[in-house]
Model the fold of this input.
Amino acid sequence: MDKATHFFTVKDTERKWHVVNAEGQTLGRLASEVAHLLRGKHKPMFTPNADLGDFVVVVNASKIKMTGKRPELKEYFHYTGYPGGATFEKFQDIVKKQPQRIIEHAVKGMLPHNRLGRQIIKKLKVYGGAEHPHAAQVPQPYRLLSTSQQE
Done:
C-alpha cells in the first residue's frame, strides 16, 4: 500500500477568476484575503511549493481606505540605486495618481519573497475604476470575509 504524500501540480487544479470590489475596504484586510486567493490557500489541494491559486481582479482601487491617521502618515519608499536616488511618496498622492500601486504593493508584501511569489503576483489585476477588460474570463464576484463579519 502506497502511503506517499501527493503533491498537486498546476495540471491537477482548475484556475478560477474572482472580482473583488475594493470600495470602502480597509487596505490590509483586503490585501490579506487577495493574497490568500492568489496563493491557493482556500483550496483543499493547497501545496506550498506550487502556484495553484486563482486569478484575482480588484476594481475600485481608488476608493480603498485606511483607518485613523494612517492616510496622512503612510509613505512609500523607493531607491533607484544611485546616490541621492531615494524618493518618498505619500499615500494620498499615490491614490490620486496610481491607486492600483497601493494594492499591488500591499499584496506583494504578503506573498513569498522568492521566484514563486514573483510568479503568483502576475495573476493579480488591479484597476482604479469599476471597469476591467477581463469579462471574457467570466470572473465571479468574491465576497470578502471581513465584509461579511461586519454586517
